[in-house]
Amino acid sequence: MLERLQKIMAEAGVTSRRKAEKLILEGRVAVNGRAVTALGSKADPARDKISVDGRPLPRAAGRLVILLNKPDGYISTVSDPQHRPTVLSLVRGVKERVYPVGRLDYHSTGLILLTNDGELANFLMTRAARVPRTYYVKLKGEPAPEDLGKLERGIVLDGRRTLPCRIHPLAERGKPWFEITLLEGRNHQVRRMFERIGQPVLKLKRVRIAFLTDRGIAAGQFRVLSPKEIERLKRWKPDDDYKF
C-alpha cells in the first residue's frame, strides 16, 4: 500500500513528519536506491527499500508512548555533549527507540512523554493543539495580583503574545507556591514568564499533561500508556475547562 514518505518515516520513529519533510527536500531520503526530493512522493513500506542518509529505515514498530516522572538532574534529550544523564537512561527495559516530546529543564521535574510515534509527537508540540500542561512552581517571593493577571491574559515573548493561562496559589503548600496551566509549550516559558514580573522560579514540577497526571508514578519511574490513552491524545480537543 502506497503512503507518503514523511508518514512512513514518522511511523517508523525516525523523526516527526515535519522534520521528515525537511530531510526529503534536502535529498537525504532514498527509495530503492534513488534519492527522492518531492514532498508528494509515496512508497510501499512493506516492499520498497527506504533509507535516510544511506541507512535503511527501520520497520515501523507498534506505537509506544511512555509517561515518565523526571527527577532533578536529567536532560530531556536523546544525548548530551556534556555527558549528563538523559531521560532515556530511566526507561530501562524498553527495546523500542523512543525520544522525548518537548523538554523539561535539567533542574525541573515532573511529567514528560517519550514516544516512537513521530506524528503524535508533532501534534502535541503544535501551538494549535492547545494541549494543557500544568505545573507547580515555587517563586522567590510573593507576586502582586495585578502581575499575575498580566501573565494570565498573555504577555509578549520573542515578539509573540503568549496564550491565556490560569494561575492560582497552592494553599496546601503555602506561599509562594503556585499552580499554572499553559496551553502551549515554548522554550523555558514558565520560568521566563515569572522572571518578567520579577519573581524567579526556584522549583518547577510538571504534574499534568492533557488528561495524564503523575498519580502513582514516583520520581524516576514511568508507565506505558494504553492504546485507548494514545488514541485519546491523538484526538485531543480542549474542553470547557481549558478555555481561559
Structural write-up:
This protein has 244 residues and is α+β, with helices and mostly antiparallel strands. It folds into three domains: 3-56, Structural Genomics Hypothetical 15.5 Kd Protein In mrcA-pckA Intergenic Region, Chain A (Roll); 65-126 and 219-225, Pseudouridine synthase I, catalytic domain, N-terminal subdomain (Alpha-Beta Plaits, 2-Layer Sandwich), CATH 3.30.70; 132-209, Alpha-Beta Plaits (2-Layer Sandwich). It is built from six helices and 17 strands. Strands 7, 8, 9, 10, 13, 14, 15, 16 and 17 form a nine-stranded mixed β-sheet that branches. A four-stranded antiparallel β-sheet has the order 3-2-5-6. A two-stranded antiparallel sheet has the order 1-4.
Helices and strands in order:
Elements: E1 3-4, H1 5-11, H2 17-25, E2 29-31, E3 34-36, E4 42-43, E5 50-52, E6 55-56, E7 65-70, E8 99-101, E9 109-115, H3 118-125, E10 133-139, H4 145-153, E11 156-157, E12 160-161, E13 166-169, E14 177-182, H5 189-196, E15 201-209, E16 212-213, E17 222-224, H6 227-234
Parallel strand pairs: 9-15
Antiparallel strand pairs: 1-4, 2-3, 2-5, 5-6, 7-9, 7-17, 8-9, 10-14, 10-15, 11-12, 13-14, 15-16
Helix pairs in contact: 1-2
